[in-house]
Each structure stands twice: as structure tokens, then as C-alpha cells.
Amino acid sequence: MSYVTDLPSSWRAEDCSNLELLPFSQVRAQRQDGAHSLTPSNSQRLLSTRDSDGGGDTRRGGPMRGKRKIIFDRVHGQLVFPPVLCLFIDSPIVQRLRELKQLGTTSYVYPSATITRFEHSLGVSHLAMKFLKQILENHKADGGVPCALSSYEEEEITKDVWCVGIAGLCHDLGHGPLSHMFEEYVNTIRRREGKSEWCHEEASIRMLKRLWESKRDQLEDAGLQEADLQFVLLCMRGLAPNEPWPEQVVGRAPWKRFMVEIVANKRNDLDVDKLDYLQRDSLCCLGMPAVPTLDRIFLGACAAHVRHSESSSENQGDQEYVPLTAGREDEWQICYERKLYVTIEEVFLARARLHHIVYQHRVTRVVDQMLIDAFLLADPYFRVTHKERSLRLSETVDDVDFYTETGDWVVNAIANSTMPELLPAQTILANIKSRNLYSTIGFYSTSADKPSITAEKLLTYIKDQSFKKKLESWASENHGLASLVVLHVKITKAPVVRKDDDTNSTNPLSSIVFFNPTELGSVCEVRPVKGRVTFSCGVRNQNMFIFVSRMKCNEREREQLCNAWRSLSDDQKLDNAVPRSSLKRTGSTAREDSITRPLYSAEQRPRRQGDEGEALTFSQEESMGESLIPPPPPILQLGVYDNGRKRNRHV
Fold this sequence. Notes:
Structural class: alpha+beta
Number of helices: 23
Organism: Strigomonas culicis
Strand content: 15-25%
Strand order of the largest sheet: 5-8-14-15-7-6
CATH topology of the domain at 69-289: Hypothetical protein af1432
Largest sheet: 6 strands, mixed
CATH class of the domain at 69-289: Mainly Alpha
CATH architecture of the domain at 69-289: Orthogonal Bundle
Protein name: SAM domain and HD domain, 1
Number of strands: 20
Region (Disordered): 32-65, 576-651
GO biological process, one term: dGTP catabolic process
Radius of gyration: 28 Å
Distance between the termini: 53 Å
GO molecular function: dGTPase activity
Shape: globular
């Protein structure tokens, strides 16, 4: 293969360093005014220069000054970041993410779950830029669809790649210490004070605006204007289906709507944020990535202007390809080749599995509650300082400068403080380190959003009056914390094997559009064939309520609580209630300790050839029917019921 190696003497060194070798057949050497000019075609520009990584461009006609960063990542290998993104990476607001654990208190169950939000944010930024470039390259290989791509200039490509990369890097800036439990703690305080609820997503927006303002001159030198900031913010927030496209605000044509789905996909939740944390969390907790490779998904993606199709449905094996229904049209969105249906399904099943055995682990939820209690007790006294001023920890969320100072370090700061007022909080933190955790009494699942039984009702079933009085008086002796607390988890069960005529479940893949690569203008929905037993991720919403005792109980007292729980659950006809003392650790510890329990015990579980290392055939699964449906999974919301009042928490 021939390559162009002789460059005109009129070229500057920086021009030469910005080129990579191209096959001669892809380069047009033209002689203009006696000088050579190498002009790769528009369809090759993105991959032929470092501008594909965002290293060049710009409004002022030259590459942005500065070096790109090459960072090794345990999940994705070598990550390349252009100088523009380095402006954000090398800033206190982004570097703060090094101090935040991605999985919060999960490390109390999985010791290797110590990855940081900084690692995750770098990974999301890398995947966002890679995904956009791959979608554009897929279109070039398939003939230049969409048509708008033919006039898509190099400078415009570079800016869009930068913007989705910045959105991926900054999407988690607003997270607080120890992940989601900090949000629950802050909102508990704000409700007491009559303030509006706080969420980390809006904090991320505020922090990016502050960061952008501090770098505005350098960003303008690189060609990034106010419209680009608004586009980055939109990529971080996401855009719901049928929500109007703000063309004047973001300065981009409607056909670029699909780019907003790369980092935060409000249409079907399949985005690079999810893909990165599934791979990263699975690798650090379970020792292997959730999905063998992401390249297959990226290579099969395209952007399409989805319109209603009048074509008839088509059957192929276990799937039925049907025309799009009304309301799914006239929007640019990311679509995938039909053959990727099973691969994408595996992504949702992997998410369900991780929620089941990692994110929703019983011990993780209990430690979360203990840390919330410790933070609540410390809040009136523990202060965060910045430039000779100080604020309570819960107040820092209203000031970007103070919030930038927060991190997981606050736990050790409280634990090691000499202030006598922090002793109650220090006692709880010491109990966590000593593994003296709150005791789980029992739990049950229901479709209702509120528990049918309360902690107060459970107290009435305790027969020992002296123990009952001890529980009732414990709060007055322990700074108002109730002796019993009900943890609320809103979960979505995702059975791996089910019949597809199950009307009580919804397949999340129904919101993803697929296409036939041999018919570029045809898109469709993919639905499993009715009545067949398939490996499907249909979902059902449920709520889980876990009863926990804050008060330290001896063996006899724990047995009284369990007996009261059994009697109460029998009277309430809670068939799926589980007393903690009846759980036997005969299987996987992580699986048994998850707050979402199997539909059968380890002893009741039917024997399968797959358990002996043999292949499990489809006919065997079909004959076993619903008895093989494994346990539920993921959570969408976490809340706490304390003294009859609900406190929501989004996860």
C-alpha cells in the first residue's frame, strides 16, 4: 500500500505533526500556485488528523496551544483527551472527583469497590467522543446518511466531539461524599428547614457553569461560545422524547438531536454513562466486565430521522420486526442494527444483576442509613471552611466554592474530631468500623408505594412489655433517632426467563429503534414473538420495605423482634415476608444478603443441568416454566420511612 511521505517545504512543523499517515488512494495531492496542498476528502477528515480527538481547530485557524493527555484506564485502555478537555480535567472542580467513591459504601461488602467518580467521568468522556465519531464514521461507510453529513465541516465536527466529551466528563460533578446517601442526608435537613429539595444533577449544572466561566477566554480562543455551553448542558440533562429541540439556544440544527442521547439518554436509558459504570463496577466488584465488548454496539449504531412506517411486520425466529407506532416519528435518534437486539438486551440484564447483588446489597443499605444518621447528628456542629468562612456540611450545596471543598474526607474528619458535640456521630462511625451494624428484622415486597405496616405497629406485637418500653424510650436517649426504621426501596424486577405474553411486564428494549443495514431507509421496533419463552428483560415495578433496628439488641431481644415480625406479617397476609433469622447462607453470600430475595430458597431451587456445568437447553427452560424465574433487581428510588414520614432518595 502506498502512503504519502513527501510534504511540501512550505508546511510548518506543527502542520506536519497534526497529520497521520493516510493511504495514497485516500489523499488528493493538488498543485496550487506552485505548492502542494494535501486535502483529505470530507469523509476522511475526522480520522485523518488529531482533530478527531479534538486536538485542533478552531475559529482562529490554528491548533489550540497545549498538549493532549494520554491516560491509561483499567477498563478502556489508553484514553486520549484533547487540550480543550484538559482545561476541564486540570481544574479543582473536576479533580475533586478523585475524592469521591463511585460506589459509596459498597466497599463495605466488596472491598475492591474503591473506584472513584474521577475514573468514571474520564471513561464516560472517552466513550462519548468515541461513540459520536463512530456513528459519523458508520454513516460514511454506508453512503453518507444522513444527507446533512455531506456538509458537516471539520471545525463543526471537532466542536461537537468536544462538547459531548465535556458533557461526559462533567455529568457527575454535583455528587457529594459517599455517593447517593449524601443527597438523602441533605434533603432531610432541608425538609426540616422548609427549603426546596436538592439534587446532584442540578449541582452538576451549576458547577459546570462556574468552571466554564473561569475558562471562558481560553474556550473562546478554541472557538467555543455560549451556544456550545448550552449544548453541553443539554447533553448532560438529556432531552425527553417529543420535547422541542432548542435550536436557537444550542445553535445546532434539529438533525443533531441524536447527540443529546449519547451521555444522558432520556428515550431508552442506553447511554455511555450506563455502559461505563456497568463495565467498571462489574470489573471491580465481580472480576469481569458486564459486557464482553462495547465496540460491537458502537459499530452497529447510526442516527436516523425516525418516521412512521407503513410496511408490514416481519418474523425472524424469536423476534418480530414491526413498523414504528405513532408518536415515535419525526425525531433524530440513535438506532441500532437488528442483530444487536440480544447484545443490547444483555446490557439491561447486566444492570439488573448488578443492582441485585451489588447496588442493593442489604449491608450496603444498612451502612448507608448509619452514615446518614451520623451526618444528621454531626450537622449542627461540623463545619466546612473556605477563605476564612465556614458553613455547615448541609449548607455547602448552596455555594459552589464550599461544595468544591467537600469529599469523602468528611467521614474521617468527623471521626477524628476532638469536639465533644460530635461524640454521638463518632459512636455510629466507630460501630461501622467494628461491624456493629443495625440489625435487619425482616423485609417484604409489594406493589404499593407505602408500607402496609409501620414500625409503630410492629411495637404492638412485642409481648415483653419491658423490652417494648426500652424500644420506645430509646429515641429520647439517642438524640431523637427512632429505635426502629423502615427502609423503602423502589425496585424493578427483571426476570431472565419469561413468557412474552406476560402482560404484567414491559420490555425496555421496546423504546429502542432498530434498522436493517441492507435497507438504510427502513427502521422498526423489535418485539419477541408472542407466547414463546425467551431470555428477555421484561420489567415489573415493585417496592421493598426493610425493617431495621437501630438499637443494639441481645439474642433474646432479637428473637422477640423476629417473632413480632412473623406474627405481624401473618396477620397482614404478607406471603413474601422474610424474617431475617430464617435466611440461610447456603448459596452465594452476596445473593442471599441482597434485599431482593429469590422466589425460592436454595433448597427449593430446581436442579438444572447448567448447575453441573452442562449446557442448559431451551427445551429444559421451557418445560420448567415460571419456576425458573430468578430474583428481581434494579432500584430506581430509595427512601426511608421514619416515624411515619417518607424521605425519598433517587438512585
